């Protein structure tokens, strides 16, 4: 069950100030599950900035505008949980159904994918691996994968392509690990070929500058969970502006477009996916089941 957001007014003292900073900078509201872990998440920030506790941290943030400290706090409080091929059935549907359908209908031989809220990049690298493993199908195509996240720390790691042994053991098949990653000390680094496929950008979904034009496949999974209904609708409107009649949108398992505006409806062919309602041809809405 998805925990409801915790209103900032229910938090006390320093926690309320830090939660307010996160909401102001990212639009995210701390859920109950994340709020009680706040002190643990901020421990490295306290240590690195010579602070004793959250009260001292909040006092410094209030006393002077320290952009660097603010960014460190925001990065620490963001949920950057990710793994390779997270929800494997989704990646199987992408490979076996969604991408073949796009391949069959696109006439410009260009595939454009946007991974919004990409965290440390495992989702984008998983897509790149599936595409490279099916290279014959995409021969002669221009493939663009853009991945964005509001966390500068997450994007820096994603760009580096370096993942720990624990990271690669979570969802990455041994064959793909040996084929597409190289040892880097005690860690593993994505091959230059994979890294070149992905354009990682630091970006804010409420002031988005990175996306351009329309994307064939849009993934915004486990991002809307942390927003108010109004902000969820704003994000869906942004995604709609960067989609076209044949685009496919994928959200997280606990997310839906129901009650979040009229930009998307449940897709007629791909279970759990969404199509852009406004772009459907006349008469097609009746052939697409309502989201529920």
UniProtKB/TrEMBL annotation:
InterPro entries: Bact_Chemotaxis_MeTrfase (IPR050903), CheR_C (IPR022642), CheR_MeTrfase (IPR000780), SAM-dependent_MTases_sf (IPR029063). It comes from the Bacteria. This is Chemotaxis protein methyltransferase CheR. GO terms for biological process: methylation. SMART domains: MeTrc. GO terms for molecular function: S-adenosylmethionine-dependent methyltransferase activity. Residues 21-271 form the CheR-type methyltransferase domain. The keyword DNA-binding does not apply. It comes from Sphingobium xenophagum. Keywords: Methyltransferase, Transferase. The keyword Endoplasmic reticulum does not apply. Pfam families: CheR.
């Amino acid at each position: 069950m998805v925990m409801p957001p915790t209103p900032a007014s229910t938090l006390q003292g320093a926690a309320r100030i830090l939660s307010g900073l996160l909401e102001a900078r990212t639009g995210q509201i701390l859920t109950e599950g994340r709020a009680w872990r706040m002190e643990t998440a901020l421990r490295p920030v306290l240590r690195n900035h010579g602070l004793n506790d959250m009260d001292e941290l909040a006092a410094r943030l209030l006393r002077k505008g320290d952009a660097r400290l603010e960014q460190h706090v925001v990065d620490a409080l963001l949920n950057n949980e990710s793994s390779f091929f997270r929800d494997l059935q989704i990646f199987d549907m992408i490979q076996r159904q969604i991408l073949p359908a796009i391949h069959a209908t696109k006439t410009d031989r260009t595939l454009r994918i946007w991974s919004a809220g990409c965290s440390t990049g495992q989702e984008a690298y998983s897509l790149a691996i599936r595409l490279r493993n099916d290279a014959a199908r995409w021969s002669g195509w221009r493939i663009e994968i853009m991945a964005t996240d509001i966390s500068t720390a997450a994007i820096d790691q994603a760009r580096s392509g370096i993942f720990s042994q624990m990271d690669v053991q979570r969802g990455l098949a041994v064959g793909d690990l040996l084929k597409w990653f190289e040892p880097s000390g005690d860690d593993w680094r994505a091959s230059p070929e994979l890294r070149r496929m992905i354009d990682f950008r630091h970006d804010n979904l409420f002031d988005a500058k990175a996306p351009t034009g329309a994307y064939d496949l849009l993934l915004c999974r486990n991002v809307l969970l942390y927003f108010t209904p109004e902000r969820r609708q704003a994000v869906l409107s942004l995604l709609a502006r960067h989609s076209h009649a044949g685009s496919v949108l994928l959200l997280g398992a606990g997310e839906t477009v129901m009650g979040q505006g009229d930009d998307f409806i449940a897709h007629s062919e791909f279970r759990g996916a969404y199509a852009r309602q406004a772009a459907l041809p006349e008469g097609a809405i009746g052939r697409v089941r309502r989201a529920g």
